[in-house]
Amino acid sequence: MVRPDTANRRYDEVSNGERSVWSFTLRDTEEDFINVTVWGSTEFIKKLSSTFNIGSVVEVISAKIVRRQPNDRNEQFMPSTSSPFALIVNEGAALIQKHDAPTHEQYKNLLTRPVKSVTSAKSLKVILDNIEALCDRFVDLLVVVTFIGDTRNLITRDGRALTCRNFEIADGSTDNTVSLMLWNKDWIERSAFWEPKKTILFLIDARIAYDEYKKKTVLSISRRTLITECVDVPQALDIMNAVQHYDLDSICSDSFAVPNPDTITTIMTVQQITEKLHKKATADGERLQFAAIVKASVTEINLDGPLKDIISIKCALCKKIIADVQDSCMNLNCPSGNGIRTPLNVIKFNIKINLKDDTGYLIGCRLIGDNAERILGCTVEEFQAMTVEKRSEMKWQYLLEKCDVRLHILGPTSIFPRALYNVLSIQLCVDKEIEQALELVTTSEY
């Protein structure tokens, strides 16, 4: 089973009373898949839809075979399949049961095989460049998940309980990410095992939309959408490698492409940065971001304090902060938090730095992750093994020294009212007179 329907739709029929319907898509080879519609009582449909989900290997017995009709309105709410037929299962006349034969794993492996060639996928750059023409159209996409939001429970005006989860996806064709919202219960549960910058998705017939409230392009999953996760194709590795520079530590619902420090040439004072942040963010309401070199003194860098103030430990799946690397998160929607799997945690540097120049202060700049390891010249594990004296010695390499600090700056928003100053590199400034003297000495030697 590769696509179960989200909801049980109810129909009142004079002859049979209340009936419910459930649909899903089956696949038994790399090329062949077919849609199935099940009719029955509400209790019958509820039991079936709770018993079988994505990845279930099933046997459909005595189903009615019908030819698909191109002019059938229901076709637009079902995936486009390779078969010209569809299956109808009526309660009492047909049966769906688990398949427990030795061939079980053979069918399970189909979950990571695309149902069509990934060459049909459009790039996000093409979509964003042609958003007006493609809005409300259905497209295929090969993308990597870059951000995973929390699961949210909602109540509709008519009292129905719904669950949704937001994601950001990218493909390396542009530095922008696009939002993806899931409403399907089964896919939301499976997304608990997804990892940013590692999980690849092949989306077939995803709907392109423009969110007027957030002023950004979003992807909508409809009943006709097929999703293949961790898709096993060579192009997947290329896309995964292309987004490794995306910033996952920004506490916002957007992922940002982090600039290469070597390409940053704009020099700004603290005052100029502050003035730019106080201006209106951007014309379309997206979060302001820019990079700059600040020539400033390091007034504080907490390298010799308690480790809990220097290193952060997060669940690798849901990104919740935890106290100890051996602990699991407390998120019951996460496989690590609810006990389905053992804790999977990530330890990273999270160093606070304060800067000062002649025009003002930047308080709470962040030196995190790989950037911190590169600047300090050690891994998190090596840092933890150091004595306090060694860490203090490392601290005084920068404290009170004037440095060229390259920053990636994210402006405030209505949801996150504080600007973020991410440190990409720190280089000690060489006094001009000393630099000239060294040049003279070097020249005189030759």
Automatic annotation (TrEMBL):
InterPro entries noted in UniProt: MEIOB (IPR052469), NA-bd_OB-fold (IPR012340), OB_MEIOB_N (IPR056880)
UniProt GO MF annotations: single-stranded DNA 3'-5' DNA exonuclease activity; single-stranded DNA binding
GO BP annotations, alphabetical order: resolution of meiotic recombination intermediates
Keywords: DNA-binding, Meiosis
Span of domain MEIOB-like N-terminal: 15-116
SUPFAM superfamilies: Nucleic acid-binding proteins
UniProt-listed PANTHER family: CELL DIVISION CONTROL PROTEIN 24 OB DOMAIN-CONTAINING PROTEIN-RELATED
Family listed: Belongs to the MEIOB family.
Protein name: Meiosis-specific with OB domain-containing protein isoform X2
Lineage, broadest ranks: Eukaryota, Metazoa, Ecdysozoa, Arthropoda, Hexapoda
